[in-house]
Amino acid sequence: MGTGRGGGYGRRIATDDRLDDHALAAVVAEEAGRMLLDLRGSAGDLGPGRLRDEGDARAHRLIVERLGAARPEDPVLSEEGADRRERLDSERVWVVDPLDGTREFGEPGRSDWA
User: Fold this and answer.
1) Rounded to whole angstroms, what are the CA distances from 69 to 2, 16, 17, 84, 92?
2) What is the pLDDT of residues 19-72, one digit of tens each?
3) In 1-114, which ranges are E strands?
4) Residue burial 34-67, b: 16+ Cβ < 10 Å; e: rest
């Protein structure tokens, strides 16, 4: 069994079918959530706009990388990424919003984002 891992977050993700899609989605979402919490906690002087942009971009990269490593045959359609026409001919497509509640993420004290 191969594994995929990048950045400093998360546990190793199985790249075969032993980790079902629901479990894979949960693992990747938890990893992205931890990364976003860390980013928000260390934002320092980043203003709300920059924090929102960074959160969206980093969560997008992490999710696309993890899903691509675990399910290379499945295209990923992300709200933050460019649409790739290959998804139209695929049996399966992962559709993700890397940071739901982007505005709230950038506002201190708000917790209504995912």
Assistant:
1) 9, 10, 12, 17, 15
2) 799 999 999 999 999 999 999 998 777 888 999 999 999 999 999 999 999 999
3) 3-4, 13-14, 76-78, 94-96
4) ebbeebbeebeebeeeebbebbbebbbbbbbbbb
Q: How many CB atoms within 10 Å of residue 95?
A: 10
Cα dihedral 16→70→114→51 (10° resolution): 160
Integer Cα distance of 81 and 99 in angstroms: 12
Q: Which amino acid is at 53?
A: D
The whole-model pTM stands at: 0.78
Residues 73, 4: Cα–Cα separation, whole Å: 15
Sign of CA dihedral 113, 7, 75, 19: negative
Topology at the third CATH level for domain 3-105 = Fructose-1,6-Bisphosphatase; Chain A, domain 1 (3.30.540)
Looking up tokens 């075969």, which residue turns up? 16
